[in-house]
Design brief:
300 residues, alpha/beta, Arc Repressor Mutant, subunit A, D-Maltodextrin-Binding Protein, domain 2, six-stranded mixed β-sheet, five-stranded mixed β-sheet, 15 strands, 25% strand, rod-shaped
Length: 300
């Protein structure tokens, strides 16, 4: 049975004020509106709820029983609504982000400690996924992607470094055995360590750029790894001297600094724009996401 909650509230207001006029003066609604609401409720339930005289309004037995059960129930409904409303006012609750593994490794570590310290009532859930997914359909509030992967009708906010580069490197032992490439096309004669996305597409061709000239090559090699989850394995194999790797410069930087890897064709390393946090602009922004967006903007 469908009953309008406003009619139930009107019934309670009248019984608490012991009359339609007093309930109206208390601000519940006009006396006529309250009377109409009670009549609708009685008609829907098929029983009389109030005894009405010119001097008083009192509950019938059915009305009294309804009051006994209805009061606590409506209090619980109001409390539940207050909880939900509080989530709309305060930065609390769960924030779910869908991000590529590279962002989880290279972008978020510099941001999350400060954010979580500033908002202790927010629980952050990170889904590291290099496949092309609909972030909203996947149950996430926002995602991190690079500009060429941004979906339409989304709001994009810069996050992390604004300029990055793909670095090409190999172990000195490999280069001592096979020679050091002088031009990107020389890579066609080398063993290269490649990646493959979940869609089945490989990360080739490798792109290089110098003085406005862009060169693309289709390298081959003895190892192909799943982008994201197995990328570290490719790095280990590069350090072991198995072949040449191309990856985010920040990812390879620790090995470049120790000398475990040697830069290859460094003057050809191609820069590209950094990632964006993106989310739907067609709905109310949840407070945890709003807090995260504001936190990121304050860092810029």
């Amino acid at each position: 049975m469908k009953v309008d909650l406003s009619d139930l509230n009107a019934f309670l207001a009248v019984t608490q004020a012991r009359g339609f006029r007093d309930a109206a003066r208390a601000g519940a609604a006009s006396a006529s509106a309250l009377s109409d609401a009670v009549r609708r409720l009685e008609s829907r339930l098929g029983v009389r709820l109030l005894h009405r005289t010119t001097r008083s309004v009192t509950p019938t037995e059915a009305g009294a029983r309804l009051i006994d059960r209805l009061g606590p129930a409506l209090d619980e409904v109001e409390a539940a609504l207050d909880v939900v409303k509080s989530l709309g006012d305060e930065p609390a609750g769960t924030l779910r982000l869908n991000v590529p593994v590279s962002a989880a490794r290279l972008v978020l570590p510099a941001i999350l400690p400060g954010f979580l310290a500033a908002y202790p009532d927010i629980t952050l859930e990170i889904v590291a996924d290099d496949s092309f997914v609909d972030v909203m359909a996947a149950g996430c509030d926002a995602g991190i992607r690079y500009d060429e992967r941004l979906e339409q009708d989304m709001i994009a906010v810069p996050i992390g470094p604004r300029i990055q580069r793909f670095a090409t490197a190999a172990a000195p032992s490999y280069l001592d055995r096979h020679g050091r490439p002088r031009h990107p096309r020389d890579l066609l004669g080398h063993a290269c360590l490649l990646g493959r996305f979940a869609s089945g597409a490989t990360t080739s061709p490798w792109e290089f750029e110098r003085e406005g000239a862009v060169v693309r090559v289709e390298p081959r090699g003895p190892l192909v790894v799943r982008v994201g989850g197995a990328t570290d394995l490719a790095v280990v194999m590069a350090v072991a001297g198995i072949g040449i790797i191309q990856l985010f410069e920040e990812w390879l930087r620790p090995h470049l600094e120790t000398g475990a890897l040697e830069p290859v064709l460094e003057d050809w390393w191609q820069p590209f724009s950094g990632p964006f946090l993106y989310y739907s602009g067609r709905r109310l922004v949840p407070p945890p996401l709003r807090a995260f967006v504001d936190f990121i903007k304050a860092r810029q």
